[in-house]
TrEMBL record:
InterPro entries: F-box-like_dom_sf, F-box_dom, PP2-like. This is F-box domain-containing protein. It comes from the Eukaryota. Coiled coil: none annotated. Residues 25-71 form the F-box domain. It comes from Clitoria ternatea. Residues 1-26 are annotated as: Disordered. PANTHER family: F-BOX PROTEIN PP2-A14, F-BOX PROTEIN PP2-A15. The lineage of its organism: Eukaryota, Viridiplantae, Streptophyta, Embryophyta, Tracheophyta.
Length: 293
């Protein structure tokens, strides 16, 4: 009996000693926060957010200002001042600034929308039809703004009929992060609506676009130019028409960008065109535009 008790006591001491040894081993929580933060600087933001859930040390390290400042583009202050305001910017942590800039933010009276891509840090910019200069837009015989759920701005410019069609956009003194960008028009031939819950598109007024092509132009203040022509196609479908590309080689360098679409051959009228948005996005995003708009 005494031997049995002695054996149990010995086993208990052994187990306690083993658990004591295990608990004394270093774990993830023992890594200095400064080391974790330095590691995070080499990771993409989505991975940082996942690792922040590991423990408290990782969570605190993931909030370090220098981590998120390394993820923001050099031109982020320009963008933040434009959509957040200088006072709000001063009161926010860099993580909060990053999170805010990575969601769509309206500016210019709500007629433009901009955000940063979470991984590349490049800009995506959408400009509504109301931010564009459209010849004859104030004359309801030619153009109307019509409400629609198919636009992120909830309305599009619709052309009934006109001889001279010209849509011009300008973006002044805008700072883009370094990268290659594409400018694109989102257009549709025909006027869409819903009947009995189903989408229908009225194409009765669509005419004149198969006679002559539309001319697309793009120019920047640093001398980049693009010119192309294309026939509008696919009545009843929103189609993205590529205007041209431009390259940003230096950060914090304001650019003026001017672009247009025009069909000004006055030998025939044109009609039935919906103008939704003009889009500036990283060139590699062109194939993913349907997910954004």
């Amino acid at each position: 009996m005494g031997a049995s008790v002695s054996s149990v006591a010995a086993n208990k001491d052994e187990n306690e000693g083993g658990s004591s040894n295990i608990s004394s081993r270093p774990g993830l929580g023992d890594i200095p926060e400064s080391c974790i933060s330095s590691l995070f600087m080499n990771l993409d933001p989505p991975d940082i957010c996942k690792l922040a859930r590991v423990n408290r040390a990782f969570h605190r390290a993931s909030s370090a200002d220098f981590v998120w400042e390394s993820k923001l583009p050099p031109s982020y202050k320009f963008l933040a001042n434009k959509v957040l305001g200088q006072e709000n910017l001063a009161a926010m942590t860099k993580k909060e600034v990053y999170a805010k800039l990575c969601i769509p933010n309206r500016f210019d009276g709500g007629n433009k929308e901009v955000w940063l891509d979470k991984c590349s840090g490049q800009v995506c910019l959408f400009m509504s039809s109301k931010s564009l200069k459209i010849t004859g837009i104030d004359d309801r015989r030619y153009w109307n703004y019509i409400p629609t759920e198919e636009s992120r701005f909830n309305s599009v410019a619709y052309l009934q009929q006109m001889w001279w069609v010209e849509v011009v956009g300008e973006l002044e003194e805008f700072e883009f992060p370094v990268g290659r960008y594409s400018l694109i028009f989102k257009l549709q031939l025909g006027k869409a609506s819903k009947r009995l819950g189903r989408r229908v598109c009225d194409v009765d007024q669509v005419h004149g676009w198969d006679i002559k092509p539309v001319r697309f132009q793009l120019s920047t203040s640093d001398g980049q130019h693009s010119l192309s022509e294309c026939y509008l196609r696919g009545p009843g479908k929103w189609i993205y028409y590529h205007v041209g590309d431009f390259v940003v080689e230096k950060p914090n360098e304001p650019k003026n960008i001017k672009f247009s679409l025009a069909q000004i051959d006055c030998t025939h009228t044109k009609g039935g065109l919906c103008v939704d948005t003009a889009i500036i996005c990283p060139t590699e995003f062109k194939q993913r535009l349907n997910k954004f708009s």
